[in-house]
């Protein structure tokens, strides 16, 4: 069930204690847990200020800029029908409680609806900074993509609005925090735990690709956990509708596919490469091509052999060898059968995909939170600043963000 910020819908909620991960993947959830399927969780949201939070884009890499600039004009600008998100909410509908995350363009706040008392995440981006860093297209793409998607494992956006200086997005508040934080606490996940999260991510990617949307920024920081421990993919700043190919260099260095680094045209294949890197990091605790020097990371992505820790199961090594491959004609997910090749791989043999899509499989971890109380204990604390939201007056950028 979804909870509209302007409606006082009733919903049954449960509180859960933190548990250790389960080995079984096909155990059904309780009847009460099933009632919660699709319930509002939470979002963080923006890039955290951790060591991997700085994402590269077309502007960030001077070495690659020349190639990208020459290809930019070829990038197709096909339109896609999106849902209208403006006009439903405004700043007075919400009470700002605290900051959940910060980034180069603004911050994400935990807010409470003045109409139904429920909690949401409000992402606020500064127009001037967006324009200065040439991220107008990405910002508008994020709104469009979030207005289109509706899936159990993808964040939901309720609406947007703007003032003279900022754009605002109202989204579900996902209380359980980032998968990244859980992974760092655990150092690495046991095979069944990594498999559970990977399977839910796989279903989300399959859905996005069915709508010709490529995500382009898969990483543990952008995978959130709801109150029951199921995933929600968030941060669609680099997502794009691409029915054919695109050329833009964007993403997080550790996760960027080789065809992106080498400025070749690409499509959905890049998400399956990143999917392989995500599985690798969940199991190993680190990514396979990392180097403290970003350019060296790119060189490793293009040339370094894929090596596995000794404790990796043979099935997962076989899967990753077919995902993290530079040969697009052999990369799983990019072949004739698409995502079915990934789902049918032996590593996923015990996954009951239909039950998983219905969130009818018990999760390996339930965040230790008080559900429905605006509990933000799973998010880092950030210094609060005096905000100047709701500014009226001259807006030189209004036409650039007309859909907000």
UniProtKB/TrEMBL annotation:
Domain AGC-kinase C-terminal per the UniProt entry, residue ranges: 349-404
Top-level taxon of the source organism: Eukaryota
CDD domains: STKc_PKA_like
Keywords for this protein: ATP-binding, Kinase, Nucleotide-binding, Serine/threonine-protein kinase, Transferase
GO biological process: negative regulation of cytoplasmic mRNA processing body assembly; protein kinase A signaling; Ras protein signal transduction
InterPro entries: AGC-kinase_C (IPR000961), Kinase-like_dom_sf (IPR011009), Prot_kinase_dom (IPR000719), Protein_kinase_ATP_BS (IPR017441), Ser/Thr_kinase_AS (IPR008271)
Domain spans labelled Protein kinase: 94-348
GO molecular function: ATP binding; cAMP-dependent protein kinase activity
Enzyme Commission number: 2.7.11.11
Position of the signal peptide: none
Name of this chain's protein: cAMP-dependent protein kinase
Family note: Belongs to the protein kinase superfamily. AGC Ser/Thr protein kinase family. cAMP subfamily.
PROSITE patterns: AGC_KINASE_CTER, PROTEIN_KINASE_ATP, PROTEIN_KINASE_DOM, PROTEIN_KINASE_ST
GO terms for cellular component: cAMP-dependent protein kinase complex; cytosol; nucleus
Catalysis: reaction(s): L-threonyl-[protein] + ATP = O-phospho-L-threonyl-[protein] + ADP + H(+); L-seryl-[protein] + ATP = O-phospho-L-seryl-[protein] + ADP + H(+)
